[in-house]
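This is your field. Please look over both lines of this record.
***
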Amino acid sequence: MDDLIQPPAATPAESGKSAKGKPKKVREIPENLRKFREVYAKAHEGAGAERIAAQKAKGKLTARERIQYLVDDGTFAETGTLVETACTEYGLKEKHIKGDGVITGFGKVNGRDVALFAQDFTQLGGSLGLAHAIKIAAVMDKAIEAKMPIIGLLDSGGARIQEGVESLDGYARIFARNVKASGVIPQISVILGPCAGGAVYSPALTDYVFMVEGISHMFITGPEVVKSATGEQVDFDTLGGSGPHSAKSGVCHFVAKSEPDCFRQVRELLSFLPQSRNERPPMGDSHDPANRRVPLLEKICEIHPRRPYRVTHIIWWLADEHKFLEVHQNFAKNIVVGFMRLGGDVVGVVANNPAQLGGALDIQASVKAARFVRFCNNFNIPLLTLVDLGGYLPGVEQEHGGVIRNGAKLLYAYAEATVPKITLVLRKAYGGAYIAMSSKHLNGDFNFSLPSAEIAVMGPRGAIEILNSRQIKEAPLEQQEALKEKLSKEYADKFASPYQTASIGSIDDVIEPCESRFRIIQSLRLLKNKRDPGTHNNAGNIPL
């Protein structure tokens, strides 16, 4: 009996020869073991060579190849491999499709646990039936219980028509779990083919959506339905490709040139995120000195307040090793959001971008920044806000589009956030927009300013045209412009000076530009224990 329990000692017989070098009779594999291997080998084959070739012809990887690209080598443990549909209509049951068009399981990314599912387009077009949905729901439940990120690789023709309303109920099961997981564990959706109809709402409920140029498409109704309903003629890419969704609708956060590049981006994003709301983000090894000087910020002090520049240059210079992962890069470019490290600690950055619309806040920028702030607050990521804006974008379109309602979302997000919040005013901060960008009395922890910053109710030029309108009108026409410049400077020195703002406690300090990186890192370290992970109220990360 013992020889059945203990592994046999290594002998020459393992090479197929006896100890004397003579050929050894090969041991027969037990029937039950042989059957097991055959069943699982067939399940892993997917829908066969022909359909896999069709998938490859579209420039797409198979579901199993995608998993191999995403997770660390040898770490994927599959669940539900043999699950089949219970539907008997239209010959579905007789097809014996193992896995029901989706692969689910657990693996590691960067050495850390993740749960994932990958829809297999080669099996019934990756369509979602009840068994398919139950598999996804089960892996999501485990992810929530075990407190680990969930990643969905979506490539599906949508609801399985043969299963009727049960397929729609399957989507509802998934949506309910998306909401349950919101703000509890990071949720990532990777669109790697079609995602249509009700299927689009699961990605929309997750935290981040990735798309690949040329192969990813998301829409409620496809081109043919659009044509029949409205008469508009549109192709798949124009209607629901990565271009319109990353730049216009804001549905997509990251765009990749290829699937391998997409998985690289997913791995990079995960390197900045904690496993759940109960943990801090992973600490990085930084060889960048905390006291490294940032001479670029001295140049900012020399630039005229209305002259544009790209704020990403400031972020790169502040960040450890000059590395910054921008989120929503193509959407609402007047505000920049993303992740970097300072002194090894992960920090979420929100920065006005004067290169677009002068950095003004508008509807899209407010919504983009508000959801990012809420995500950081949910997952214990400190916030750094870089301020340089003249106010809200004016215009009838903005007012009628709801800039008041949407602008309030950013105010709410900053006010409710209890993670460490550090703000640096670079050049200007006027009016209500100054308040919205994590101002001191919107519960900012440390609010700093560069010496050249202007902080006021409105810009000096606009202010003196109201306050000194009579004086300007009475001056000779040829002297009015010079008078405006003189009065603007006097107003700025008296009412918009950062020293005046610091004197009333609306900012904590005016700082040496070169020392900005050190002062921010120092502040982060002072605030490190401001909040214990998992003790904050969970408001979820609702799509705003």
Notes: The two ends are 65 Å apart (CA to CA). The chain has three domains: 34-270, 296-457+497-526, 460-495. Residues 34-270 form a domain with the 2-enoyl-CoA Hydratase; Chain A, domain 1 fold (CATH 3.90.226.10). Residues 32 and 92 are 27 Å apart (CA to CA).
